[in-house]
Amino acid sequence: MANLTDRRLEMQLTSGIWTDFGPDVLGVLHGHYGLDEARPDAAIASTGELTLDLDNSAQNSGATLGYYSPNHANVRSGWTYGIAAQWVLSDQASQSITSITLSGTTATATKVAHGYSTNDYVTITGANQTEYNGTRKITAPDADTFTFTVNSGATTPATGTLVARKSYPRFRGKVASIDARPGQYRDRRVHVVVTDPMDDLLSAKVRELTIAIDQNENTLIGNVLDALPADARPPARSLDAGIDTYPYAFDNVGGGIIAGTLLHDIVLSGVGLLFSKGDGTVTYKTRRARAIATSSLTLSNDMIDLSVPATLENVFNRVRSTIHPKTIDAAATTVLWSQSGENAARPSIAPGASITVWGNYRDPDVENRLIGGTATVTPAQTTDYTANTAQDGTGTDRTSSLTVTATAFASAVKFVLTNDHASDTIYVTKLQLRGKGVYDNGPRTFEAYTAKTYGDRPVDVDLPYQDDAGIGQDIASYLRDQFDGLEDQTESVEFIANRSATFLAAALLREPADVIALTET
Fold it and tell me: Which residues make Cβ contacts (< 8 Å) with residue 121, sequence separation at least 6?
């Protein structure tokens, strides 16, 4: 019989410092993450959630009523929305650490024959300096020392009874919901929901992306993650090297798009998977990596429950895949964006002031059609912009007093306009950006079909950035082979983790996209 020896809920009340919340957790924790279902158009995971209750009575670790109510006078210092949280499990015994010293932000722990490897997670407890405590990924340069990152400025060396244990983060995210239940006659619990990094990806918008030319999937995914606000980026990423090259990407960003929508377009175009692992690492797996993956666990008549589909809901014997070859203007003379000639669209700028104007690229021949753009031209006086002291352009020409800085992105432009005149308010009477338009002019659809006794069950899969006809046909056949029957579909499997060391390791190590072999007589 294998057993867990430690379970910890850690949160960062102070950035970079993990605090153990275990003493105040009431009842059990419930967590889930990964993809909700297997479908031909499934590409990225949904938001994962960890739910728990904290003791808000005077019997908690702070002996303080209202300790976990965000708006209470007695609220615990640092307790608020958005702080980092992780749920950590361990199946190994702890061991004493000889010493921990600090240089900059690198802590070095010494323990002869510690048994850890680089990229293991280790939980440190017992340090009087809280900066050292908590669970972190380590580097092990040799058999007797390992290092990890902490906040700078901690006292060195660490003091206290230093203890280490190899651990396994099973959920990493941010506090998204705090439901403090009021009333002196109620149970004085606070219900907390922690969401994994997918929540940020599925809610934050990106806009400032330049057109991507001849890039593969992992580069594009990295570009989107880098374009997120710093506090919305995942704590780590692991992206398979891409196997497809997309001639043009991000031409559909426009005035801003949810990062998850854009990531879905990238990943689905290559029929890969994007998800967050238990330690918060956003991970991309290509279709090739998934196809050649070997089994990480075999369950053969030793699971306690197995659920398989009973309907044809996710069965498809006719798959249509659509690719999108792009066309591009031959010369950088197309007006990608221009302001309306109406007076209301001619902004005024006070003397010495600056304003910012955004514009989405549009097809000059089809006004309501958004396009991408590349090879943009630096705006030139008179040709691309003019200014006047009168809104209708009948006053004094002040074009020479207008400074225009244009930052061109994949499908939008950002203008910073400055009035350099000492006394006159000026009106921008003309403003435009020229370049090469990128157009989605000729989508092409490919089909793969196998006759089945259950009839015709079609599904359409759009591959927004894919332009290779051969890959388009191969993807249709690949998805049809995966989804034209129930034989290889499983909804869920349940096993007792502490039944054996193998099962316990599976519960601690398995992640979305891992392969599990199942036999059920």
Answer: 88, 135, 136, 137, 138, 166, 167, 168, 169, 279
Signed CA dihedral, 376, 379, 382, 387: sign only = positive
Per the CB < 8 A criterion, the answer to whether 157 and 100 are in contact is yes
Distance from C-alpha of 449 to C-alpha of 451, rounded to nearest angstrom = 7
CA 398/CA 428 separation, integer angstroms: 9
Structure tokens at 138: 């380590």
Count Cα atoms within 13 angstroms, Cβ side, for 245: 4
Backbone angles phi, psi at 474, to 5 degrees: -60, -40
pLDDT of res. 369: 87
Cβ-contact 420, 406 below 8 angstroms: no
Query: For tokens 């659509």, what's the residue?
Result: 322
End-to-end CA gap in the chain: 25
CA 489 to chain centroid, in Å, comes to 27
pLDDT digits (tens, 9 = 90+) for 362-395: 999 887 888 999 999 999 999 999 999 999 999 9
> Does 23 sit behind a cis peptide bond, omega within 30 degrees of 0 on the bond before it?
no
Whether the per-residue pLDDT at 1 is higher than 50: the answer is: no
Beta strands of 389-510 (E only): which ranges? 402-408, 412-419, 426-439, 444-449, 458-462, 492-494
Q: What is the pLDDT of residues 481-507, one digit of tens each?
A: 999 999 888 999 999 998 898 999 999
Place of tokens 């990531």: 263
Distance in angstroms (rounded) separating the CA atoms of residues 167 and 373: 48
Beta bridge pairs of residue 410: none
Closest C-alpha among 44, 521, 517, 42 to residue 262: 44
CA angle in degrees (0–180, nearest 5) for 481-482-487: 105
Is residue 3 very low, low, confident or very high in pLDDT (cuts 50, 70, 90)?
low
Q: What does the block give as tokens for 296?
A: 């990480």
Between 217-227 and 259-269, two packed helices, what is the crossing angle to 10 degrees?
A: 180
pTM of model > 0.85: yes
* 24: its two tokens: 């105040």
> Which residues lie across from 248 on neighbouring strands?
213
Euclidean distance between CA atoms 196 and 48, whole angstroms: 5
Q: Are β-strands 99-103 and 205-206 bridged in parallel, bridged antiparallel, or unpaired?
A: unpaired
Task: Give, in order, the Cα–Cα distances in Å from 10 to each of 112, 277, 436.
Answer: 27, 17, 51
- The DSSP code for 484 is S
Under DSSP, the state recorded for 399 is: G
CA 520 to CA 517: how far, in whole Å?
10
Question: d(Cα 25, Cα 258) in Å, to the nearest integer?
Answer: 34
Question: DSSP letter string over 60-95?
Answer: STT--TTTT-TTSTTPPTT--TT-EEEEEEE-S--E
Helix (H, G, I), strand (E, B) or coil at 134: strand
Whether 317 shows a pLDDT value over 80: the answer reads yes
From CA 12, how far away is CA 82, in angstroms rounded? 10
Phi/psi for 32 (5° steps) reads -150, 150
